[in-house]
Amino acid sequence: MIDETSLKILKILQEKARIPNVEVARQVGMAPSAVLERIRKLEKGGYIDGYEVRLNPEKFDRSLVAFVEVAVQQTPRKDPVGEKLAALPEVLEVHFITGQDCYLVKLRVADAGSLGGLVQKKIASLPQVTATRTAIAMSTLKETWRIPID
Predict the structure, then answer these.
(1) What's the whole-model pTM score?
(2) Percentage helix, strand, coil, to 5, in the chain?
(3) CA distance 141 to 146
(4) Mean pLDDT, contiguous 10-residue spans, the chain (150 residues)
(5) 45: which DSSP letter?
């Protein structure tokens, strides 16, 4: 388990991953070297998966967000359909879910035409895919990777 200081560091890094180490140290009241050591331990312990830059999707003609439910015939332990879905560059997330559909896929594309082509040519045509259902997001009110830390 991690202590309060480490949790505080994680909260700060979630807000702004590029914050200088000296500023993190100032906020938690520790020496920069001690903070750096804690961050390395948090990375090594698997608490921090990585650091990413969030790009503006509109600047890259990827403003349409859609969710596709993908039903498959049978799901073997090592499912190639899930792996193939995850390999598509337009796909942001692939979740194995309960219910009649096996996968929930979140993706970003330019427009409805791009979405239709992607679903028909790259998703519905995969072996073992029996059906797809697509929902387009009309607007996005919240989209984050931040995890609440109590």
Answers:
(1) 0.84
(2) 40, 20, 40
(3) 15
(4) 92 94 97 97 95 91 97 75 95 92 94 97 94 96 89
(5) T
Angle CA 93–1–38, to nearest 5: 85
CA-nearest of 91, 92, 95 to 144 is: 92
Give the strands of the sheet with 91-96, arranged side by side.
91-96, 103-109, 64-72, 129-136
CA 93, 98, 101 angle in degrees (round to 5)?
70
Is the dihedral angle over the CA atoms 70, 71, 72, 78 positive or is it negative? positive
**CATH number given to 4-44:** 1.10.10.10
Contact indicator for 24, 13 with CB cutoff of 8 Å = yes
Select the CATH number that applies to the domain covering 57-136 from these four: 3.20.20.80, 3.40.50.1820, 3.30.70.920, 3.90.180.10. 3.30.70.920
Please report the pLDDT score of residue 99 as a whole number. 81
Say what the pLDDT of residue 76 is.
59
Give the chain's end-to-end CA distance (angstroms, integer): 13
Instruction: Provide φ and ψ at 130, rounded to 5°.
Output: -100, -25
